[in-house]
Amino acid sequence: MNFLPKSSGARPRVACEISCQGVVAARSADAGSPLSAVAKVDLPLGAVVPSLKPGNIVDRLAVTTALRRVMEGIGARANTRGADISLIIPDTAVRVLLLDFDALSSKLSEALPIVRFRLKKLLPFDAEDAMITFQVMSTSRSLVRVLAVAIPRDVLTDYETAAREAGFEPGSVLPSTLATLPSAEDTEGPVLIVNANTLGVTTAIVRAGVLLLHRSVDLQDHDAPTPPNIPQEMFEPSLATLPLVDVETSASEWAAQEALPEHGRNPYADRTFDEEAVQNEDSITGMPVPPVFAVNDNKHLPATSVLQQTVSHPASLSASAEEIAQAVSVAAAYFEDTLSALPSRIFSAGPLGAADVGRILVEQGVAQQEDLSVRELVNSSALLSEAVTANVSRAWLAGVAGALRG
């Protein structure tokens, strides 16, 4: 298993993402080719419960069955010599940290122990018993910025075992939002990405291939403090302009990352918003979606929105929407203070989809900028015509498309 491999084009040509809502898979001929086949199978509620504790795969039979079906859907053969896949797992099952070092050896054998030692005080789990990998994001004479990814060994085993029981070998493993980042390479300028599903939301900022922010919020946890890598002032009604700052996250930072909604600052509050600017294209055919959209695996079931699947209680549903809007607002404020400009576009990279993300931002009063739009990160050119299927919306494909490009 190669966790977060570095070399471009070295990953398997089949990618599969396991989320709390379903399993999606895709294949492509090479790193520069569009997706040639895609498939998705929904999972029962509670079959996968991502966390930093073992037991993420609650209903192993349902997950392995879904894995086999989705692989069959793209023509991948189980238990064969070429059954390697890039496996994408939920953000809430890993910790992603941006660390700064004065210097770091170019030799992996020397650098990894230093990174692991630094993580000992930062992770909410034992760093010695964790799978850890890192990549150097940027270097200067006085600073080496490192992207570190850590996951408890038993949690990683949960997902790898499910894939192997389905007949496929995880050749590489990536967290969901990091997997999407290669898809952002086609966009101009800095990019704000929102990856939302029923249990969590991750926001990320990327500029010229360098990750500036990665912030995950568990929608099931309502007692999270402000993460120290984001200035406290950002959660207050007023905020002084800040210079370009270093991003560094820690375990206490990521143990609970949610900001209290009532303390949030809306960077768009003094602007008007044209609701028509929200992009409501959800399917890979480019057709507009209705207010509630189907995420069913060709089953004759009522169509429900992703947020409606999260909880049945209206108060909880409202809280989830508020937290998603707050996460976007904080990321947009950080974008403004770091890059001296507001993002004019937000790219959606998760099952929630651009249409629902846009509606949430409008309803929660976050999106009030005149030309702000929410768009799918994966565009129609990312798929061959024969791969287009009404059962798999572009909202589900950001992770697998990015993993196949990486």
Question: Would you summarize the structure shown here?
Answer:
With 406 residues, this protein is α/β, with parallel strands linked by helices.
**Second rung of CATH, namely the architecture of the largest domain:** 2-Layer Sandwich
Number of strands: 14
CATH superfamily of the largest domain: ATPase, nucleotide binding domain
> Secondary-structure element sequence?
EEEEHEEHEEHEHEEEHHHEHEH
Rounded to an integer, what's the Rg over CA atoms?
20 Å
> Biggest sheet, strands in spatial order?
1-9-5-2-3-4
User: Looking at the structure, what is the overall shape?
Assistant: globular
| Helicity, as a percent range | 10-25%
Output the structural class: alpha/beta
At CATH level 3, the topology of the largest domain is Nucleotidyltransferase, domain 5
The major pleated sheet works out as:
6 strands, mixed
How many domains is the backbone divided into?
A: 2
Average predicted local confidence, pLDDT: 77
Gap between N and C termini, in Å? 16 Å
Ranges where pLDDT stays below 50 over 5 or more residues in a row are 222-264, 270-316
Question: Oligomeric status of the shown chains?
Answer: single chain
